## 1
Amino acid sequence: MSALNSLIHQPTRLRVMAALVSLDAGEKVDFKFLRDLLELTDGNLSVHLYKLEEAKYVTVEKVFVERRPKTWIWATTGGRDAFAAHVDALEAIVGQARL
Amino acid sequence: MDSNQALDDLKTIRQIMDRTQKAAGGNGGWFMVIAGVMWIVGFTGNQFLSDEHAGWVWAVANVGGILAMIWVGMRLARDSGMSTPMWKPAFLFWIALGVFSGLLIWLFHVNGVNRVGLLILLVAAMGFVQIGALFQHWLIGVTGILIAVLTIGAFLLFPAYFGLSMAILGGGLLVASGLWMIRSGR
């Protein structure tokens, strides 16, 4: 049985990962899109992205588009696997309670 | 963690995934709306104008439509906050289908406005079905099937009004499907 992932378990990071893994492989979102979608502040999102990036669950790429800075974010394969394992663990807890 | 907390987390995950899909999706609808407008303009020309004039209307509609699609694609890439690797392959796919249609018309000497229209529409319908299957997007696939059915029906049952039928039914269907995609975010 999969174990809960303490890094992903934190509520904001859980929402960030849920948003990112719902995209198809190869798709990415920019920082502003994610911030507005999850109704977070710049600082709050940055802190959690940093932790997820450190764990190699997400990739953060800073680029310039038409001379404007843009930050692209996407879930890595490892991040997708870790999230799937965390969801499995949550489902197992719910399933056990129903037995 | 108790089961209620786990259930709440699973609900949160589902909500965020749905919200993300809705916010990120639907952009393809703009391209269907533009294609629909191209069809409405082009096929209305077929119905009411001479072949030569209708050809010019189609040329203007095609060039205008392709430029509009490129402009929308660039705007979406810049402003939508989302990047997908699918746009370029999808665009190239439609260009390839256009070339394929042209080759078929040339190789098999397809004559007559209705027959040429029939062939192009059936190839386009096939394209929608393929794109729908590729992107696992049922609405695009169903739109393709409906276009094929409407096209064959109009060609056989209302040959004198084929252009007008395809402008209203085919073009209208594309516009309606596109607007539905934009509105629903699917």
Note: The beta strands of chain B are 82-83.
## 2
Amino acid sequence: MSEMTLDIPCEIPAEAHNPVEPFLRMDRMPHIWCPGCGIGTTVNCFTRALLDSKADLDKVAIVSGIGCTGRVAGYARLDSFHTTHGRAIPFATGLKLADPELQVVVYSGDGDLFAIGGNHFIHAARRNMDLKVVCVNNLTYAMTGGQTAPTTPGKVVSATAPYGVFEPSFNLVQLAEAAGASYVARWTTYHVKQLSRSMEEVLKKKGFCFIEVISPCPTLYQRRNKMGDGLDTMKYYKQASKVRHGAPTSECGLTATGEIVVGKFVDRDRPDYLELLRAQMTETLGERFAEPEVMCEC
Amino acid sequence: MHADPRGVLTGVHFLDGDHACCEGTLAAGARFAAGYPITPSTEVVERFASRIPTVGGIFIQMEDELAASIAVQGAVWGGAKAFTVTSGPGFSLMMEHIGYAAMTETPCVFVNVQRGGPSTGLPTLPAQADMMQARWGSHGDYGIIALCPNSPQECFDLTIRAFNLAEEFRVPVMLMLDECVGHMTEKVTIPEAGEIEIVPRRYTRKAPAEFRLFEPREDLVPDMVRAGQGYRFHVTGLTHDERGYPSMNVATQDASVRRLSDKLKPLSNGRAIWETADLEDAEVVVVSYGITSRVAQRAMELARQRGVRAGKFRIISAWPFPEQRIADLAGRVKAFVVPELNLGQMVHEVERAAAGRARVIPVSHAGGTVHDPAVILRAIVEAAQ
Amino acid sequence: MAKGFVGITVERCKGCGFCVEFCPTHVLALSSAYNSKGYHPPHVVAAEKCSGCDLCGMYCPDFAIFGARHAR
């Protein structure tokens, strides 16, 4: 434990340690995220979910794309993959199909998953590929300086929309449901308990699961639009969020300063990709169907 | 080790190159393929899709080549031998991920059944115009291996070789067919599984605490690992240190990026793969590869009949380029004649290796069909003067 | 004695204020001290009110604080 050189010390047991540290590559701390950024908060929730679901951490693989949230893979002490921009999901598809015993989590940002990665998202959802997708949605392309993302609501300004965004923005939960996801939820970084619980739920669920987490980007999105800092944004989330489990996703669109509908919207059971594959092959090939043993000998 | 018999269709077959390539992947132990339809390559994965459910593995048709080219790599890190198949436009789409495979040292195979280009070009007709792209198509400095079969039999044999080289050098390998070789039907002999040598994946024997995913052995190639074994490793396309952690500075860039090319140096001399004939007394050497080598064969025979001492150098491993051998030949022949189904690509490598010590005469062709042997013959005869 | 305690890794803190704001029993306040990066880390101002719920730890984006219950 580091020393505390502060005004009023308090008594700490000698063996106490931050419960998130065993899940992190501590040799890579401190991380690159800004003051008030919510990505680290989501990592705490993910850590809690891993603990509470009693996941075998050797079998959890995390796949990220490019962007601020994409850096999560580098900090998580798991088998981790920092892939190309937008392509975390197809990479994760190959990984999962090669070793279905892996619990494959995709952890990436809104631009990565829904702009360049949009096509891959909808197809993996359509296939009900057994992947758990966490999308930290800070409504911008943060890493590259705060450009417009498909999630950036009108009429905020961005680095590429200096006079205000005029494009309609995506409603990610509606998109996920329409594409076929088996589990769809949205929280904000204010909802740490609920987010952890949703993450734990998806770790125990088969099929394509999607959790959107609204998060501040105080350095770019909030600053450019004079929305305050990370704490101001968290207070806004607290005040503006309405928990509506089961709400129609079509009614869950986001605006720049309006209500944020959070909750679990979709939780359905559908056979996942491998179950469908097995069922079809067994039906058509009968005994000739050979169990897919994809891993090579060594 | 030997091939797994479940994937080996032992016997004498009458197959086209695409189909033979598919059998090569199965014999090599590939049990995962991701693809996207594109003429003239599609038959490779169509056959794989129909074979793999009874062999035991997975084929998934992805939504585009971007997805296919990275799904394959996810599968490799999950422990599979994996490949994808495409042609020109898809090859272009896959370029970012070929670079990712090179940077992360992911062993996998990319099959390109070349067709007329650029752009949509001639989907059903042959060309050899992606050769430079195979080497340089992705951004940055990296190395790859490229093999060029000239018959359906070689489509089988060289596919296995491609997988073996991928595992040995922890690198993506390009298998450069062309539409002719892919769609020509010839006898293909597939031996018993016990006669097929397979290079196993070089998984580390170290414990997780000591293992470093990018720490090279003496041969400059690092050991491999797969997910789910407790190694808690990290793979990134960012410039990284031996642990795989991003390390974006000049020193790491120099050390790690150089090694990506340096590790393949053995293939530019001693380990290069070629076929030669009649070189002892040759005054002109015809350098060719793929389907053009079959046409060039005819031209060389005609040249010999006319008293021109033509020798054959058939490139089989095009990248790294067999520069040492060409440089040696340049010292004792008058000229190289380099027919290609493109407007001049590998000929520049021949020029570079010859370094002015022999003339280098291209015989270019924009593609769409094979050369007329008479055109190559004319070049050989002129070169001998 | 309080039910819980808070551990703070001063050098990791970026002074975002989440822990101070969202502690349910207002155990924390930003201190006047600086860490080496120039941020004001939190300190415990009402130790007896700490339940060890670890909400501070859940919120902290920099992994700089955690709460835990004293062993009984």
Note: DSSP finds ten helices and eight strands in chain A.
